[in-house]
Amino acid sequence: MKTALKIGSLTALTLLFISIVTFFVLKIRRIDIKYGLKEDSRPFVFLTQTEECLRPQLMQNMGLDNSQKCRCDVIVLSYHKACQSEWNPPHITYLFDKDSSWRTGRNLLYIHATMKGKPRYTYYIITDDDVFLKFNQAASEEMKQLTPLQVFQNWLLEYEPAVGVVDYSGANEAQNVLKNCGIYINNNSTTNPTVYFDPLFNAFHANAVHHIFPLLNQRENVSWWYTLRHVISNVELKFRGQALIFFPISVENSLHRNYPHTLENAQEAWRDYIENVRMQAPGNYANHSLFKEYKKDPIHYVETSRTYCMKVTRHRPIIPFAHFELANDTT
Questions:
Q1: In the chain, what is the straight-line distance between the N-terminal and C-terminal CA atoms, in Å?
Q2: CB neighbours (10 Å) of residue 104?
Q3: pLDDT by residue (tens digit) across 245-261?
Q4: Distance CA 224, CA 240 (A)
Q5: Residue 106 has pLDDT above 80, yes or no
Q6: Triad 329, 229, 53: Cα angle to 5°
Q7: CA distances from 143 to 3, 134, 169 (A)
Q8: Nearest Cα residue to 133 out of 146, 117, 119
C-alpha cells in the first residue's frame, strides 16, 4: 500500500513537472508567434570570451545550453586554452586566440558572427562570461513567469532599440533620469533612453552593430576601460535616444580579473573617440553643437544629458545620425 502511494505521488509530481514545462514552452511559442518568429528561429547570437570552455553558471542562468530555450546561437572565444569539451552542441561555436584582449576578442567575435554565410541575427548580445541576470523590484509578477533572459529578449523584440541594456548597480541610471528629467522610476517605468552603460552585457541591433564595431582603442596597453568610451560615444552620437535601458532586470558580475585599467587621461581618449565619430558624420551635421557639448566635458555630458528625457519610440528606424533631424524628441 505504501509503495503504491509512493508511486502515485511520484507520478503526480511527474505530471505536475510536465505540465509546468509544457506551460512555459507554449508561452514562449506564443511569444515567438507574436513577433513573427518561426519555430526554430534564432534571432539572437551571444558573443563571449572565456579562459577555456563556456562557464556552467552562464549557461544555466541564461539557458545557453538549449538553442530553443535561448532562441540563440553562441560563439565563444577562449584565450588561455582551446576548449576540448566532448559536449559540443551544434549551436555553440568555439574559437581560440591566445593573444586576444577585451577589445580584440570582441572584434574577432563580431567579425566571425557577421562574416559572409552567417545568419543575419536581429540582436548581437555581447556579454562577459561571469554575468548573472536577475529580476529586481521593478519586475512584475507576470514577468517572473519567464526567465530574466527571456523577458529581456521579448523586450528587445517589442521595442527594437539600437542598443539594449539592463540595470547595473554602479551606473546610477535611475538617478540620472530623476535628476535630469524629473521622471520617477517605479514599476510602471520599465524603459528609458540612456547614455552611459557598462559593457558587460549589451545587445546590439543588426542595423546598429556595423556602425559601432570594430572597436577602437589605440591606448589599450594603458587601459581597457577606454574602449567603453568608444562604444558609448558611437552609440550616443549616431543613435541618440535609441540606446534603451530595461529597468526590471539587473546584471551582476562575480569575477575581477587582472588587466590594464586606469582612468588617467581618460578624458583625452574620450575626446578622441568623439572626434572620430564627428568625422564620420555627414557634412551638414559635423559642426553640430552636440559634438562640441559632448567633447567639452564628456563626464559632465553623460551625467546631465537631456538624452535621458527623450521620448521612447518602439521600432524606430535605426539609421546613424538620423536623430539630428528629430529636434522635437526631447520633453
A1: 71
A2: 19
A3: 998 999 988 766 565 45
A4: 24
A5: yes
A6: 115
A7: 40, 11, 20
A8: 146
Facing residues of 95 across strands?
A: 77
- At a CB cut-off of 8 Å and minimum separation 6, what does 194 contact? 165, 173, 176, 243, 244, 245, 307, 308
Q: Mind giving me the DSSP string for 237-295?
A: HHSTT-EEEEEEEEEEE----------TTHHHHHHHHHHHHHHHS-TTTTT-HHHHHHH
User: What span, in angstroms and rounded, lies between the C-alpha atoms of 105 and 130?
Assistant: 16
**b/e 7-32 (16+ beta carbons within 10 angstroms → b):** eeeeeeeeeeeeeeeeeeeeebeebb
Looking at the chain, the whole-number percentage of residues with pLDDT higher than 90 is 52
Cell of 256: 575581477
Q: How many residues does the chain have?
A: 331
CB 23 within 8 A of CB 91: no
Q: Is the pLDDT of residue 301 over 90?
A: yes
Q: How many helices (H) and strands (E) does the chain have?
A: 11, 9
Compute the distance between CA of residue 261 and CA of residue 124 in angstroms, rounded to an integer. 26
Identify whether the C-beta of residue 163 lies closer than 8 Å to the C-beta of residue 242. Answer: yes
DSSP per-residue letters across 192-221:
EE-S---TTEEEEEHHHHTTTPSP--TTTT
Sign of the C-alpha dihedral computed for residues 272, 199, 215 and 101 taken in this order? positive
Instruction: For residue 127, list its beta bridge partners.
Output: 201
* Cα–Cα distance for residue pair 6/20, rounded to 1 Å: 21
The 10s digit of each residue's pLDDT in 77-101 is 999 899 998 888 999 999 999 888 7
Phi, psi of 274 (to 5 degrees): -60, -45
Residue 5: alpha-carbon gap to chain centroid: 49
Single out the residue of 38, 216, 47 nearest to residue 123, CA to CA: 47
Record the pTM.
0.83
Neighbours of 77 (CB within 10 A): 23
**DSSP bridge pairs for 181:** none
The answer to whether 140 and 186 are in contact (CB under 8 A) is no
